User: Fold this.
Amino acid sequence: MNHPITSKIRLAGPVSRLYRKLFKPDDPRGWADYHMVPDRRGTLWIHCHGLQRRLGGDLEFVAVPTDLRAVALDLMFAVIRHLKGGHRACADMPLSARLVSKTQSFAHLATLRTAPRADKRHLGSLRILDYDEPIQSGFPRRLFASHLAAQAEAAKDPKRKEKLYRRAIEVFPGDFGGDEGVEFDPAAPDLTVQQNRSNLVAYMGLAEILRAQRRMGEAAGFLEAAIARCPVWAMAHRAFLLQDYRPDDPYLRYWNDANIGEIALRRQAEEKRAAAASPAPGAARRPGFGRRPRGVADFL
Assistant:
């Protein structure tokens, strides 16, 4: 697909790229020309030109929500750095790497597939998708949720951590039964599978942030959501925590008393009912002239 190249579409012009190439050689911004093209759905096609010789192919994301533009670029740069470390890109290539921090509790998972582009400028581009998903799957919501969760883990500011975890859950609410058949060692935890399937790190991280702020009701809700999605992990995690059980600790008391099976069944049923009751896309009324969005203040 041919498209115009303007300052709004192009991340940086040739002078800026040359400067980075000469004076910041480790910065991926100087290695390629990055374009962010709006599509008919109001999302972005983010791709690059100039990496064929360096990495084996140009990369792209499709259907990226506009508010995730910066996240998409940061994620693409991280993938490029990983590939430059000795992993030449090719079609149907799986990717598993800790892209934000070496100490993050899980690895990002993705797959590269050849994009169906017929025009010469974009021929042979590699689309970054969720792990083992087909080319038609489009926007890699699991991968983006994982990147947001990894950024939240690395963030220092509690407000920023909360914002990132919440956005990760919006992008990918997570599947139930995400740890079925997966062994978990709480003494040496690796949450890669649980994160990719169920977005576990976002739920647990948000619960911890809210608990630290004494927002116990909200924290318990997100903790239950984590337990419901990964009950096998929850059982192992509980056994590990209760090795040092103290009845005066409300958090340990919660884990001691939690009925994990009941929580999993109840939360699945609740979320199914909520999904069935939610309006079809476009059916909800938007606040406008003469209409005010209802909030807590309306009921006080």
Q: What stands out?
A: The first helix runs from residue 14 to 23. Residues 173-277 form one domain. The two ends are 54 Å apart (CA to CA). Residues 281-300 have pLDDT under 50 and may be disordered.
